[in-house]
């Protein structure tokens, strides 16, 4: 099997409007990745969200699950359009746009997990500490 990676470095390969042949060799791995993203989305939503420590962690798991489901579905649609050899809608630039969208979404999730979530957690702890000294409601 001849597996040549040299065309990947040329812009003409990526900017071609011809859809790639996805059912040969490495193209099948795209289908496996996209289906794997959908399965991972269901597993994260079902198991990890239920075992989250707090609401912030559960929100992060829900966001990851949404990302996996959305990008998996979009990837499968792109794969189908490429499989059917639809000239413009199955072209390689759409795979690059999909990859760019995935990278942006992952960066936003990391930003939420590293910057925003600790601030929200701390504000919840501060609010609980203050409410500890405030009078409670009468029943």
Description:
- There is one protein chain.
- The chain is mainly α and 139 residues long.
- It has one domain (18-131).
- Helix content is 69%, strand content 0%.
- It has four helices and no strands.
- The protein has helices spanning 11-14, 26-48, 55-83, 92-131.
- Helix 2 (26-48) runs antiparallel to helix 3 (55-83) and helix 3 packs antiparallel against helix 4 (92-131).
- The model has no long low-confidence stretch (mean pLDDT 85).
Specify the biggest β-sheet.
Answer: none
Number of helices: 4
The run of helices and strands is: HHHH
User: Roughly what is the average pLDDT, rounded to an integer?
Assistant: 85
Offer a few descriptive terms.
139 residues, mainly alpha, 4 helices, elongated
Could you give a short description of this structure?
The protein has 4 helices and no strands.
Q: Helices, strands, pairings?
A:
Layout: H1 11-14, H2 26-48, H3 55-83, H4 92-131
Helix pairs in contact: 2-3, 3-4
């Amino acid at each position: 099997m001849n597996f040549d990676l040299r065309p990947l470095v040329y812009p003409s390969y990526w900017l071609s409007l011809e859809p790639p042949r996805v059912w040969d060799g490495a193209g099948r791995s795209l289908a496996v990745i996209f289906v794997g993203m959908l399965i991972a989305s269901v597993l994260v939503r079902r198991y990890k969200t239920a075992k989250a420590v707090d609401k912030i962690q559960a929100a992060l798991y829900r966001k990851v699950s949404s990302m996996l489901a959305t990008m998996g579905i979009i990837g499968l649609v792109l794969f189908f359009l490429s499989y059917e050899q639809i000239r413009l809608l199955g072209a390689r630039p759409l795979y690059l746009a999909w990859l760019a969208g995935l990278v942006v979404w992952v960066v936003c999730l990391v930003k939420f997990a590293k910057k925003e979530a600790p601030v929200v957690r701390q504000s919840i702890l501060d609010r609980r500490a203050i409410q500890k000294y405030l009078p409670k409601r009468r029943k």
